[in-house]
Amino acid sequence: MAAPAPLQIVAPDRRHVAEVAELITTVFHEQPSPETVARIRGMADLPNWVQLPDCRIGLLDGRVVTSITVFRYLTRIGSARLVTAGIGAVATHPQYRKRGLMRDTFADMVASLHPAGYDCSVLFGIPDFYWQFGYVRAWSDDTVTVRATNLRPACPPPTTEDCAGPEFSEEVIACMNRWQDGLAGTAVRPTHGGRNKHHGDHILALAWRDANGALDGTLYLKIEETRVVVEDACGDPEAIVALVARVCAEREKPEAVFPLLPYRSPLSRRLRLGECQMTRHCRRNGGALARTVNLGACLAKLAPDCAARLARSRRHDWHGTLLVSDGREEVGLRIDHDVVQIVLPGTTPHRLHLGDHAVSLVFGTEDPADTLSRPGVTATGDAAELAAILFPELDPQLPSVDRY
Description:
This protein has about 400 residues and is an alpha+beta fold. The protein has three domains: about 10-120, Aminopeptidase (3-Layer(aba) Sandwich), CATH 3.40.630; about 140-280, Aminopeptidase (3-Layer(aba) Sandwich); about 295-390, 2-Layer Sandwich (Nonspecific Lipid-transfer Protein, Chain A), CATH 3.30.1050.10. The protein contains ten helices and 19 strands. The strands form three sheets. Strands 1-2-3-4-5-14-6 form a seven-stranded mixed β-sheet. Strands 8-9-10-11-12-7-13 form a seven-stranded mixed β-sheet. Helix 3 links the parallel strand 4 (about 80-90) and strand 5. The protein starts with 7 loop residues before the first strand and ends in a 14-residue tail after the last helix.
């Protein structure tokens, strides 16, 4: 009896687009509309977003049975911009499950990310699967809920104009990036090839301008039966609150919800100063997950911020070498007072063996003390103290508009 043919794992090309789209719709949509199918097929036409050479499909029995889509974008961490491989549309044909085919496909894809020039990778996944490829919690999702009567705007709402449409204009994107600069975990827009995923009958899209006529804020609201959901907000927090309060009053909605709101954003701070309910969903190994792809590149881009943090700390005069390891790569950080440089790893008593949780320090996912308390993570010499200074908690978050 002949042995079964092995799974052939390759990067897809234009010949595979229709079959990959069919697989994705079969796995993720029970009764997809023609518009949904067309949208999925059209993703291959966004070369600045979907990276076909970095995607992977598995071929078996003459058909595409597994598929992984890789998106390319920049993640803000302090002043650094990390080249990120966003992983989505991880699909296995229902007739070919429970054979380990996705495990093989995913391993091949992950191995290709470093030579493709990525610094890190992010995905939104099911529990108890992606840990085996080095992915750990990237951040915890924050949601702020406010009764409309508790919004209490301090100023009248600005005059607005409609900014709805299937794509974001260059003016809108520039405004969004200006207001999101400095918020860890956010993406440098455009993502999704510039397409607006929050576009439709139940979305209210508003924009406003400053005294000089320049676009100064954008607000995308989803109108639900009993509440207004703020899908994306960029601008002065008082202007945003005033507009949300006006829409709640006009639409007779008693509640406003701000999902996936970056904790350190001015808007989140403004809401927390009033009366609101804030929830944080912490997942052990599902949801938002991340891994380092090129630890050296990550730390090199973070070095200026690390130096600035050290200069402000009580250990500003520390000098020596700190070794940082993610289990795949070892990187030396040469620290000379307030200068931080990447050097070859060498002998040093100050060592951080972080394993997969290296990305937690890179992203500022949590209090460094939490990361250092995880099983398998060790710190020697002054490494624990330096970690707390160089890699503080940043509360990263990727807003809804950019998720995949």
